[in-house]
Design goal:
With 255 residues, the protein is α/β, with parallel strands linked by helices. The chain has a single domain (20-251), classed as Alpha/Beta hydrolase fold, catalytic domain (Rossmann fold). Helix content is 29%, strand content 26%. The protein has a 10-stranded mixed beta sheet with strand order 1-2-4-3-5-6-7-10-9-8, sandwiched between helices. Strand 3, helix 2 (58-64) and strand 4 (75-79) form a beta-alpha-beta unit.
């Protein structure tokens, strides 16, 4: 009995201490991230950055988009936005947490935050730079596309859910992309999101019609890239039921 209790407490301690909340000083402003270390060791460490939607926070998204429970070999980092992004009808005074939606707005504060965390993890972990992945929902998805445009050379694949890059990502470097669009999205219209599809296809050099399986269509791009286009009759929410598939998508892509 004592042996089993000791094993249980040891396992529990691993779960507790594998999660760390860190603060970063970016131009005099404290930025927060919650970091889950890998629970399965596998040499060099893949990384998944996760970005919440407008009004969210790192703690909430770590439970809602719990990649750490699906990709146990990865270092999973839940980034937290800041107030300042004004959203008409939702947050007109910009009091809620949010992210840049262009490459040069908000004084580049969120790109600087990403750069600092990216630099620090390379000092503390043996990072597998061929496996750097980003997930974003809503405003976080838009920022993931900002990073694709500005830091695409560092990124292997992204999941952009319920918001897309639009003209911003024109001529971005080819990486693998999972796009999720809810056909009943009342926050970011599916019609506006669909305008990004031909831009992503152009970036990836996609010319085929793809292969459809349920609500997903799979396209092959140049340099072994892939586009997964998922469209369902849901709304603006993140497609939690697809998270395991998104992790499988990440795992099959490396630089």
């Amino acid at each position: 009995m004592k042996r089993w209790l000791s094993l249980y407490l040891f396992a529990l301690s691993i779960l507790i201490f594998s999660q760390t909340t860190k603060n970063y000083n970016i131009d005099g402003t404290l930025r927060k991230a919650i970091i889950y270390e890998p629970t399965v060791k596998s040499g060099k460490v893949p990384v998944v950055f996760v970005f919440h939607g407008h009004g969210g926070n790192a703690n909430f998204v770590s439970k809602r988009i719990d990649v750490q429970n699906y990709y146990k070999e990865a270092l999973v980092i839940f980034m937290e936005g800041l107030p300042g992004r004004k959203v008409p009808g939702l947050d007109p005074n910009g009091k809620m947490n949010g992210w840049q939606i262009f490459t040069d707005d908000l004084e580049g504060r969120d790109i600087k935050f990403f750069d600092e965390v990216f630099s620090e993890i390379h000092k503390n972990y043996k990072i597998d730079d061929s496996r750097i992945y980003l997930i974003g929902h809503s405003n976080g998805a838009r920022f993931v596309n900002v990073l694709w445009k500005m830091r695409g050379d560092k990124i292997t694949a992204i999941c952009s859910a319920s918001a897309q890059g639009g003209n911003l990502i024109t001529d971005a470097v080819p990486i693998s992309v999972w796009m999720y669009i809810g056909n009943n999205d009342r926050i970011v219209s599916p019609q506006s999101q669909e305008q990004s599809i031909p831009i992503v296809k152009s970036n990836l050099g996609i010319t085929d019609k793809g292969k459809t399986d349920g609500d997903k269509t799979y396209f092959s791009g140049k340099n072994n890239t892939e586009l997964v286009l998922q469209q369902s009759d849901s709304g603006h929410e993140f497609p939690k039921s697809s998270l395991a598939d998104i992790v499988v998508f990440f795992k099959r892509h490396s630089k």
